[in-house]
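Data availability (excerpt). All sequences and predicted token strings are deposited with the supplementary files. A representative entry, N5-carboxyaminoimidazole ribonucleotide mutase, is shown inline so that the format can be inspected without opening the archive.
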Amino acid sequence: MPKVAVIMGSDSDFDVVKKCLIALEKFDIEYDAEVISAHRNPDKIFSYVRSAEENGIELIIGAAGKAAHLPGVMAGLTPLPVIGIPIQTSFQGGLDSLLSIVQMPSGVPVATVAVNGAENAGILAAQMLSIKYPEIREKMKAYKETLDEEVAAKNEKLQAKING
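Structure token line:
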């Protein structure tokens, strides 16, 4: 089974990131969740990311707020795909985090979800991994069908209210 690294720049990011972990679990994707700061312990992030592939990691998700350099630093250190989760901050509501993650130089892309969009990071990781893993692809198809059914049910409720 695939393995994903989920790296938070701070333990305060966990309340947001847990939605990502739940999404990964929904698709039976193993993960390693760690707190590693790009600024406070850069040697550890360099070591962790540079050895990720040999440790069975196939994709990395990085969550960070404020300066939010973590996902970009990781993307610069590995050929593995990196997904960034910008964390909402008290300054600019997380726009600072979002811009720090999406404004990457050519050659160092970071796929980025919405501010606090951790669930979508987990789902995007599953979609990316489903290219290689048919069992994840089948779970993704079932998940998409469930979304369709949920919207159809909501529409039926709305139509009942409208038509009394």
